[in-house]
Amino acid sequence: MARHMIFIILLAVLTASGCDKFGQVDQGRVIAYDKDEKTVVIIQDKSEDSKKPDYTALPPVSYKLPDDPNETGPAPKAGNLMKIDLDKKEAVIFLKDLNTFATVNFTIVEEKKKVDSKDPLVFDPGTKKNRDFPAFDQEKKTITLYLSKRKVLLTFSVPDEYFAMPKETWTPGDEVRIYYKEPGKSLRFMNVSKTDIFKK
């Protein structure tokens, strides 16, 4: 419902601006971002339920960012972590070299709930910046993530072969929404993860 409402708002804005031909809207999680080339690569969300995204559509899709900087939101963060299921204790990661997904079972070491985004555990009041996640403890072989939507600070362990993978493996890429008319060329780019559309 929320996603459809955003689409309606977007289309209304386009109508007001004089557009006589509607384009299409795509949404997904960023797995690659090239600042110089101004391109993003996403795994599309194929779910119809905005509360339950499904980032499993292959192949990945590449988009050129808008030429107009006013049509581009905050720069996206790329990552290969598609999903964390706390109930099943499973993580879904994208393996770029194999162009496929892997489901990884993990063990919860610590789960702190109701952790606000300004909590000192996730926000440094001295620098007024978010702390860097994922955080790795090489001695204990654990990974710590902050799941902002669920306000959960999660520390978990995975099999050694997955722990040894690059940091981006366990980094959730930003969720983005793209308006386009030509395939691969975005006209408007919204970084959903870093944008509050209701903020005045």
What's this, in brief?
With 200 residues, this protein is mostly beta strands.
Description:
With 200 residues, the protein is mainly β. It folds into two domains: 2-78 and 173-194, Copper binding periplasmic protein CusF (OB fold (Dihydrolipoamide Acetyltransferase, E2P), Beta Barrel); 106-168, no CATH class. The protein has two helices and 14 strands, in the order H-E-E-E-E-E-E-E-E-E-E-E-E-H-E-E. It has helices spanning 2-16, 160-163; strands at residues 24-34, 39-44, 61-64, 81-85, 90-95, 100-105, 107-112, 123-124, 129-130, 135-137, 142-147, 152-157, 175-182, 185-191. The strands form four sheets. Strands 3-2-1-13-14 form a five-stranded antiparallel β-sheet, with no helix packed on it. A four-stranded antiparallel β-sheet has the order 7-12-11-10, with no helix packed on it. The protein has a three-stranded antiparallel β-sheet with strand order 4-5-6, with no helix packed on it. The two termini are 22 Å apart. The model is unreliable at 14-20 (pLDDT under 50).
